[in-house]
Amino acid sequence: MVGSVHEKAHxxxxxxxxxxxxSSFTDDTVLTVAVADALVQDKPYAERIRHWxxxxxxxxxxxxxxxxxxRDDAEPYGSYGNGSAMRVSPVGWAFHRKKEVLDAAMASAAxxxxxxxxxxxxxxxxxxxxxxxxxxxRKAIRAEIEAMFGYDLGRSIARIRPSYRxxxxxxxxxxxxxxxxxxxxxxxEAIRLAVSLGGDADTQxxxxxxxxxxxxxEVPEELRAEVLRRLDEPMRxxxxxFEVRFGSTGSGF
Length: 253
Prior knowledge:
The chain is an all-alpha fold. It has a single domain (about 1-245), classed as Orthogonal Bundle (ADP-ribosylglycohydrolase fold), CATH 1.10.4080.10. Helix content is about 60%, strand content about 0%. It has 14 helices and no strands. The protein is globular and about 45 Å long. This is ADP-ribosylglycohydrolase. Its cofactor is Mg(2+). It holds the Pfam family ADP_ribosyl_GH.
């Protein structure tokens, strides 16, 4: 939501309003709820992703995804876009073992993004959330993600920002979003750092915010209230059901 009004603005600063009149949920929100719903109901990822995307058809989906969501028999289309990573955060909260997280992240990605980079992006984000909620510090998270996925997480946002450009690939946006989450000292700062890259603002803020939530244990009350106000009741119902089944995520939903 925070990044929704900044995606095409390419801002390179952190001093912006978190919410404005036009701030709204995007495809990132819809499909994150879809993955959470699949986990709550033990239903196939593809079924729930299609259901939610069709219920909210104009939220910024990519062209190939729009074709996929319109057909119940559509196969994955080899994407390595960051759509697999933007929706995966519930997986990082729902499982208790590393292998389970990696397997579920792959399954959630592969219904559309079955390219190795698309799967890797989803697994990296889910694993970072899992490690953070298990108490790993940022150095340990950085080391494990780098070792497993080959991402360069040793850069700083200040170093990346000046030359960074809009990039919707996993390999060109997920590492930077993870860096924002690990560099931050709060959930809000993680979101601001991600948006300040001037790239795919809503998706990178979604990824960074999801990891930061696991790192810092809760979403600040003011931020949570603004988010909930912009969601409709079906979405809020899924969030409540997710926490009932999988325990508190610190979101306060």
